[in-house]
Records
---
Amino acid sequence: MGYTVNQVAQLAGVTLRTLRYYDKIGLLTPHTRTEAGYRIYSPADVEKLQQILFFRELDFPLARINEILNNPLFDRRDALKMQAEHLEKRAARYRKLSQLARETLRNLEGGNKMDKKDMFEGFDYDQMLEEQKQYEDEVKERWGNTEAYKESMSKTARYTKEDWERINEVQMQNLKDLCGLYNAKVPHDDPRVQEVVDRSRKFISDNFYECPPEALGCLGQMYVTDERFTAYYDKFAPGLASYYNDAIQYYCTKK
Amino acid sequence: MGYTVNQVAQLAGVTLRTLRYYDKIGLLTPHTRTEAGYRIYSPADVEKLQQILFFRELDFPLARINEILNNPLFDRRDALKMQAEHLEKRAARYRKLSQLARETLRNLEGGNKMDKKDMFEGFDYDQMLEEQKQYEDEVKERWGNTEAYKESMSKTARYTKEDWERINEVQMQNLKDLCGLYNAKVPHDDPRVQEVVDRSRKFISDNFYECPPEALGCLGQMYVTDERFTAYYDKFAPGLASYYNDAIQYYCTKK
DNA sequence: ATAAACCATTACCTTAGGTCAAGGTCAAGC
DNA sequence: GCTTGACCTTGACCTAAGGTAATGGTTTAT
């Protein structure tokens, strides 16, 4: 069970084409397919779609939305809060434009010329881009390394569904390996653990941004200081985040 | 003396590319060019740009905006009134979406599942298309013949700047001819006048929609009953509208 | 069993511009 | 008079987010 494309489309008020397109670009991949290849969406997929639509409503490009939703730092509550705020701003913008239309009308009927500059007060499209920038800033602040973030953005923007699948698979494999070693109580300086760390670093370098050991060190720190990352890793095994960080820091000292 | 493309762009907050594009598609042709070919916009052009931006803000396709602004029925006051109204509706829509985001957040934090249908209440994009439809309806009502209107739409949508220039030129020529005959007190059933009417009918058929004599008859009636059309024709010579209609009605009886 | 409704993929098309590239024009300073 | 930099031109190519077919498989209701 779950929803068919048509059901989701009806529910959310989007077209079938849209859903297929989102699948194709890997933005919203239905969680299963029937034997015949029919798409089946889970409730979680539907919730994700809502998130997508909120971002879309704020004119985020789909590639950026994909980026955001694929980031482990993503937090739905944060996003909803920010979205509510910006949607409110957008409402204000339209109210202002409505006012402008009315004012123009008044001036027209009164026969007095309007200052040409005032005639476009409120149209300024820049305001809209600001929304994206603000969100980006918030994320950047957490990631710290602006350069790396940019590079990551430009690389990941053109990833296809297959790319994301591949990336996810590799990351999951690494995580599983790490998790296995952790559960087996292998110490963090063991070569097998260090090998996983090295693989991770290379993987990040290849797929996201140039990642020298120091950068990995920063990341590792974040795994224990940022509760979202901690939660993400500890979901697999309690204490995994800190174990991973220990391994990373050791890796860094050995360069 | 007029604005350069850069000045207009700054004023209105649009890009240079946008202005050039609008020129190319004949949506906003600057009223002069310098000898070197530089675009010079008049104050009237700037006002037209404001109109364009209001329509654009409501997601009217540019082709439709062109259609609307090229229609003699177009009235800036009417348009502004309608725009203010719909912009207000848009503001309301965003407020609703903001509410939805907040509600979703509350439910998320409260831990209670939200009805999937409610999760998309307010996104419905259909509402937006309604705006266009409403405007279209108003125009349709005046034009009466839905079939003809549709055909006209589909034909004129792909007209380029050159097409519009050609059309305008021919129409102006016809109008001048008619005006000359009217001023020379040539009666409306004179073959020379009837020839102009026939040319007009053929021209409409060729460039807008299939226009048999009866359809032309309707048009002629509108020229005297709709004050905007009357005003448009009487601008060239007082009484021209009714003279034109007389000529058309005579043409229709003779088939 | 067969029609109607639903699903799949592939392929081509559209809108409203963004982004170069290559070159003409104009006012300012030397 | 010459150059430099800011501003203008056209042209060509590119993109995002789907729309619209065309063609064919699947499910369900009668």
---
Amino acid sequence: MALNSLLAYINNYVSLTEEEERLLETYVTKRTYLKGQYILQQGDICRHSSFITKGCSKMFVVDADGQEHIIMLAVEGWWNSDIASFINQKPADFNIQCIEDTEIVQFHYDTIETVYTLVPKLEKFFRKILERGLAASQKRIIRNFTMTAKDRYLYFKASYPDIDQRIPQYMVASYLGITKEFLSKIKSQIAQER
Amino acid sequence: MALNSLLAYINNYVSLTEEEERLLETYVTKRTYLKGQYILQQGDICRHSSFITKGCSKMFVVDADGQEHIIMLAVEGWWNSDIASFINQKPADFNIQCIEDTEIVQFHYDTIETVYTLVPKLEKFFRKILERGLAASQKRIIRNFTMTAKDRYLYFKASYPDIDQRIPQYMVASYLGITKEFLSKIKSQIAQER
DNA sequence: GCTAAATGTTAATCTAGTTTAATATCTTTT
DNA sequence: AAAAGATATTAAACTAGATTAACATTTAGC
């Protein structure tokens, strides 16, 4: 069940007592979305920090030309939120939309500091996953600078084989920062090399 | 003096008591580096999380072709560390080198968890700056996808006018993910537009 | 099972940014 | 103040990836 997978995830980083788990339960809410629904829309204020327990989402911006650019693809065990919007309670730059029917467990902005006070281990937990997130984000910037589109695609496939199967190619292309046509070309190149 | 600027910075995010400040002091060390010296070298394990109190540094990788790619330029009031190396105590992918004579105040990996325990506000502090760091890193990925090199340069100049003045153009180019020749072209284009 | 919509492919043309190489300028050392 | 090293500019040739457009295939709704 949804809450348990969140607890199991948190317990990989810190060890919550039974009591702390009970307390935490009272501060999170479960929500479900259908494929296509938005967890967050550009311009709205991001009120929640959401943990995906089932399904798949994309976080993206729409640029001046109406083109979609995906910064993040998330499946079970990933976090979803426009952090800048969440921490400043300012309108979001990013959209978060479900690619499959999706179930999330969420913390609300208004109570999250209370949760940190009641269960300081959760502040440690978020500190740790933010460290990992920032390290990963920096490495992604470097990959985008140093690797060709083809190598980035191969890296993506190897790193996230599960995500690669579940979402359409044109979203993978957007995540990689290239056009769907060019990804198609890359794929046929790779196929010929065999 | 160095320590005071760190304390002032931390107090922007959390409010330390006199006693907490005293305690913190016993866990940080000051170091100075000359221009050109390395705070961290690729392959070494990152043992410290460093706050710059004076000077300027670059964080970069050297790719297979021997080319340098800068992920981060840091001046007074910025943090420096290869986070992945620091949290996992594994060899660093990144180098951190001083561009000017530089003074830092640093936390050591071996005692930082102790500091968090003694002064939980510091865990909150790091959680907050990591949130900001991750938000900024994600926005940079999007800028790299959506903006032309010229617009990224103008954005950089506007956002970090102080850094722009202090470091050579070829490092700005590397930070922007373009060649120094192309940045030179962009600059002459901009000059002609006036 | 049919139709429409969504997704994917191919190929020609185009362009932002790279590469190479030569020259210029600025900074530091002696 | 000369020489050497570091930094910056310019321009020609080149390439990774974008754009456009036509067509193919797969998926979902009825």
---
Amino acid sequence: MQEKEISQAVIRRMPRYYRYLGELLEDGVERISSNDLSKRMNVTASQIRQDLNNFGGFGQQGYGYNVKFLYEEIGKILGLNQKHNIIVIGAGNLGQALANYVKFEKLGFVITALFDVNPALEGVTVRGIKIHMLDELEDYCKDHVVDIAALTMPKEKADAIANRLVNLGIQAIWNFAHVDLDLIDKDVVVENVHLSDSLMQLSYNIVKNKQNK
Amino acid sequence: MQEKEISQAVIRRMPRYYRYLGELLEDGVERISSNDLSKRMNVTASQIRQDLNNFGGFGQQGYGYNVKFLYEEIGKILGLNQKHNIIVIGAGNLGQALANYVKFEKLGFVITALFDVNPALEGVTVRGIKIHMLDELEDYCKDHVVDIAALTMPKEKADAIANRLVNLGIQAIWNFAHVDLDLIDKDVVVENVHLSDSLMQLSYNIVKNKQNK
DNA sequence: TAGATTGTTAATCGATTAACAATC
DNA sequence: TAGATTGTTAATCGATTAACAATC
């Protein structure tokens, strides 16, 4: 059990810290103070220190934070020190785009298989990753370790397939379908990527921006 | 000028209301109370009423909200009553996936062109949408109305191209590159979709979930 | 040691929830 | 009219910022 629940607001900021620290590391920066980092990231130094202290004291008074150490610690917090196998359900454009995206592997996320219902895609490979027929899903999941399922199929099918995956013991779903999944097991971790929602937010801000001029 | 600034927390929830109201509309539901909606959406009725009243009184005491009316009003708030032309910079897998995604058009977002540096893609079309070479960007933007530019190129190139777009008068950027853009004009609206960040959040919650067991 | 900067407590601010009068 | 439900004010809760003692 976690000592105290850490808010999602904090969690949402962690990958961003990780990204900035990665850049600093690449630039050969050895240490950084919360103040310097706050200027780069456009947040308050106070928030950085509060956020990090949710997980432990990673800094040193009078010195600041060691970039490499902090980078690695945040990596551990985010679970990047372990490999995650991902299967992608829906081998359409988005599914294939995910499979082609190499950067995920650097973070320990490996796409191991794609699934689709379209017979034309049977046996086709994307960057060496095989597209299976959806009815092979059960067999595949029994024979392979699968940590995450990415759902890129139409929203009408999402609930049914998601619950099929839950029954197969999947623990996490990365949901690109434009619905809020209704799962039989509430313990399954779900992360939504709703592109249309994102576009609507953008659109709202465009309208607002025009009004302000 | 807007009366009072509406928080991004509220804005983030609006597309979700829109989605649920759309579903109700499809199901032929005529009216709904904040209480019934709150149960479906797993939020408090109070929050729904507060959120909506940022924009106006759309309901009626003793009756609730008219689904069709509210759906359309939220659509207007989100700017979905006007057409938005999108160009996509980077015609790789993700760029092509966006171009292929038909649902955006129902919301008024039309992808009109793709751009890439790869000569092999010159003249290729995706769902009838032409891929242009990147050096045609200036000419294209002068001859066509472009409301939004979606950036799907590698992060190293993102800042340079984003600022090229800003100089061409683009007002909004939908950024899929894994960086925070550093723009010369801070008035440009930016909406980030950081897929790696999303994956890291998912990964954090997987780790947490395991610990809690 | 003196200076710098953290970790942490306290103060402030904002967002969410509760309550209820207004009113359909 | 009586019942239902909004719009809105007040209360609570949580997140952010400020301040500063601890300490490297």
---
Amino acid sequence: MRIGEIARRSGVSVRALRYYEEQGLLVPGRSPGGQREYTEDAVQRVRAIQQLYAAGLPSRRVAELLPCMDTDTTTDHQRAMLRAERDRIRAQIDELTATLARLDELVDAADRRG
Amino acid sequence: MRIGEIARRSGVSVRALRYYEEQGLLVPGRSPGGQREYTEDAVQRVRAIQQLYAAGLPSRRVAELLPCMDTDTTTDHQRAMLRAERDRIRAQIDELTATLARLDELVDAADRRG
DNA sequence: CTAAAACCTCACGTAGACGTGAGGTGCAAG
DNA sequence: CTTGCACCTCACGTCTACGTGAGGTTTTAG
């Protein structure tokens, strides 16, 4: 598939896909004419990338983590990083939960006032 | 208190505090000589600002939400926004929870392999 | 009164994930 | 063979929450 269709299917922009290649996150093949050729699973990979971005990871981390999802082998470094990022996300969830509680209080207080 | 002490107590930089003033999030008084004079509760307010920033809200939203935490009155607009941001944060927590599960799987798989 | 902190106001620099043309090429249709 | 859309490669622009001097003033310690 070409870049336009992947963009439509995955919901990201063409520019974003080129950026992912530049960052080494999703490197497609090339047609004889030089156009990018993506395989089917590229869409899944894009979703994974977006999910990790949404968790606050920078491209470098995503580039280091994606191989762990592809292959079934992990180096010590990768395992340490997996744990670190997992812990970071846990802390992030805890903080968001606290913020949510705070906003809930405000909403409830407003509702009680009419 | 002056800006340096607030910075130390709240853990943010002096520059950040000036920025908060510029954004209308935390506007201190001024000494006769023109220096910023903060009250005690400024530290709490800084923490609230940081918490909202951490939840992904931009300055504009924070500026709109902070009054809800100060006064006990809310406009319709404020209440709608409170709900909207609350829902956004809920969704964010859900997505992070999914990401966490995914990373947990990877960590567990790596652990099982030795 | 003086020196040194600590503060002040511009105002440009930064990082990250793209947006947005500019100018040129590949490819399927007619 | 030519239109025309989708694609290509630079390469500068954008937005946010500050970082980082430059150059000058206020406050405090001695």
